[in-house]
From TrEMBL:
Keywords, ordered alphabetically: Kinase, RNA-binding, Transferase
Protein name stated in the entry: Serine/threonine-protein kinase Kist
Domain of life: Eukaryota
GO molecular function: ATP binding; protein serine/threonine kinase activity; ribonucleoprotein complex binding; RNA binding
Gene3D superfamilies reported for this sequence: 3.30.70.330, Transferase(Phosphotransferase) domain 1 (1.10.510.10)
Species this protein is from: Python bivittatus
GO cellular component entries: neuronal ribonucleoprotein granule; nucleus
SMART domains named in the record: RRM (SM00360), S_TKc (SM00220)
Length: 388
């Protein structure tokens, strides 16, 4: 690998948010040298992130610096925002049964928003895969990372792009010709990113790794029929109309002919994105946010007796404040959300610490269940009837 990633915090400010340092293994003498592996990838990623800085669904570059303490000589580093769980990890959790439609739609919309912006700037990501899509707990969205293979359309500087299992047919052909020493051929376009995302979303829906399927002769002969089969086998779990909208969206992204493949902007117009979904409880456990939701704490008696209710809420506030600054605390007395305790922290780091500490803890003789909750929904006063 040409880089390693570390978690970091500012030594002079223990309250500062954690960040990520991506350190590139230097192979050349100059900071902006383009001849060596590590330097070349560093320069490419730095240039891309500086030009793309500011978009909600693209990892934020804070600064660039040189690490002169390495025994192997100076290395070049990117200081980036620290993100949370990756889609790759979500796929491990959802193996066999697939991700919920809520989380699949959330990921699809966020990544398509990123790609629309990326492609407008004429950038191709060129390595879109589950490991390169991460959740931001603070901004409550998925973000794209790792722009080491990215390039501007019409200026493709490497022939070997994308990862096995997520590589578009035209990139497979280009890679094959390059290995065979055949010069020429057409350059890849932004359409390769849509293919990769299509495979990622199909894996999220199916709960299966599809590498061997998409590399099979059957897939090459008729991938549309295989997609139909995957969706037909899941029809019992997912309601028909939303599943069909997702199926049609994925088919539009997985055309073998890149000219017929949907653009990111066109894909965002799919009716799939007009359907409101509720999160499963597993989603709210896996995706951190600044809001914590505590279940199995308040009894009906506590809700009905005002004095007892105030005492219990004061106890909860005192316990929760041990883990960070509380912005607000809300306990609905009617459905939806009756008896649930919503605690908004100043940042997601505090809510994660509270969730780890409070899950399974006994409170008034009951075992606490602690999940996260979407901050945007909480601030709108929208309480999901969570799907179990």
């Amino acid at each position: 690998a040409s880089a390693a990633v570390f978690q970091a915090r500012c030594l002079g400010d223990p309250c500062a948010p954690l960040a990520a340092i991506k350190e590139f293994l230097s192979t050349g003498p100059g900071l902006l040298a383009l001849g060596g592996g590590g330097d070349r990838v560093f320069s490419k990623e730095r240039a891309a992130l500086e030009e793309l800085r500011g978009h909600r669904n693209i990892v934020t570059l804070y600064s660039v610096f040189t690490n002169c303490t390495s025994a192997k000589g100076p290395s070049y580093c990117l200081l980036l925002e620290l993100l949370d769980i990756s889609v790759s990890e979500l796929l491990v959790h959802s193996s066999q049964h697939g991700c919920s439609m809520w989380i699949t739609q959330h990921c699809a919309r966020d990544v398509l928003e990123a790609l629309t912006y990326l492609h407008h700037k004429r950038y191709v990501h060129a390595d879109l895969k589950p490991r390169n899509i991460l959740w931001s707990a603070e901004e409550e969205c998925f973000k794209l990372i790792d722009f080491g293979l990215s390039f501007k359309e019409g200026n493709q500087d490497v022939k070997y792009i994308q990862t096995d299992g997520y590589r578009a047919p035209e990139a497979e052909l280009q890679n094959y010709l390059s290995k065979a020493g055949v010069q020429g051929g057409t350059e890849c376009t932004s359409a390769v990113d849509l293919w990769s995302l299509g495979i990622v979303l199909l894996e999220m829906f199916s709960g299966m790794k599809l590498k061997h399927i998409v590399q099979s002769q059957e897939w090459r002969a008729n991938n549309s029929a295989i997609i139909d089969h995957i969706f037909a086998s899941k029809s019992v779990v997912n309601s028909a109309i939303p599943a069909y909208h997702l199926r049609d969206l994925l088919k539009s992204m997985l055309h073998d002919d890149q000219e017929k493949r949907a653009t990111a902007a066109k894909a965002l117009c799919s009716p799939f994105f007009s359907i409101p979904f509720a999160p499963h409880i597993e989603d709210l456990v896996m995706l951190p946010t600044p809001v914590l939701r505590l279940l199995n704490i308040l009894s009906d008696t506590s809700l009905q007796n005002e004095e007892e209710f105030e005492d219990v809420v004061d106890d909860i506030r005192e316990e929760c404040s041990k883990y960070g600054q509380i912005v607000s605390l809300f306990v609905p007395k009617e459905n939806p959300g009756k008896g649930h305790v919503f605690v908004e922290y100043a940042n997601a780091g505090d809510s994660k610490a509270a969730q780890r500490a409070l899950t399974g803890k006994r409170f008034n003789g009951k075992f606490v269940v602690a999940t996260f909750y979407p901050l945007s929904a909480y601030r709108r006063g929208y309480l999901y009837q969570t799907v179990l």
